[in-house]
Amino acid sequence: MQRLPPTLVQWTLSKISSNMKSPTNTLRGQLAMYIMKTFNPPSIHAAVKRLELKSTDTFLEIGAGHGESLKALVDIFREQQALQQQLQETNDNVKEASSSMEKATTSSIESSNDANNNNIPEKVILVEISSEFQQTLHHLIQHEIPKDIFPTPIEVHDTDCKSMTFLGDNSVDTIFGFNLVYFLHPLDEYISEMKRVLKPGGKVVFGCKFGSLPRKGSCDVFINVDRKEICMAMEKAGLVDVVSEKVLVGGDNPMMNYVEIRGYKETEYGPDIQVESRL
User: Mean pLDDT, to the nearest integer, of 86-105?
Assistant: First the structure.
């Protein structure tokens, strides 16, 4: 399927559309799961790294699926551990060097550390309405991500993100949804709820694979498939500095590449986030 004509991919997804939203234990559901497991992981891992999360953040993912974002966070955590170990070993070696050499190397180490913008958030909240995916997420958390490896608290909720009563106002720093926004209807109600729980200055980030989606109106499940209309809906809901950008992950493969759409909740002092528009 990696090199099938886009029209054939779109036709296939239109025939299994409901299972792309919430997989069932059927042949179509198995096909949907296969497509997601095959093509989403590299894209999601790239998307999570682009979020530039902070160690003080509360991170909310809606439509958590197989837990690929969680796996990406674990990978980032392990990369940081490896980097810290390398820095410690380098610092130990520096102590044995001359004072001038120590000063120069220490400066280099600090610069390298500052360049690493990704951090593990203080809290992770996953929202997933599919019972199949919920089971996958709980198994992942309980058996594949031991607390001693990934200490961040992780919550899983099965509530529709149109009404996230388990979250207070201004409580989340980053909201992330990959291959999700197509299914949110009515979109303005969902985005309004996201805006409610966002902290001032917080962001909503959608990852969208428009190149492989069924055409607008061809099925009643993939509803929000127009990039500009999604951006306009975010702006209408009151998000500011809404931008979109194509992200290349798999060359010219529309099943791997995606469009990132992001918007911010205005701070109490007004829009102060300077982002170049790429609409």
Answer: 66
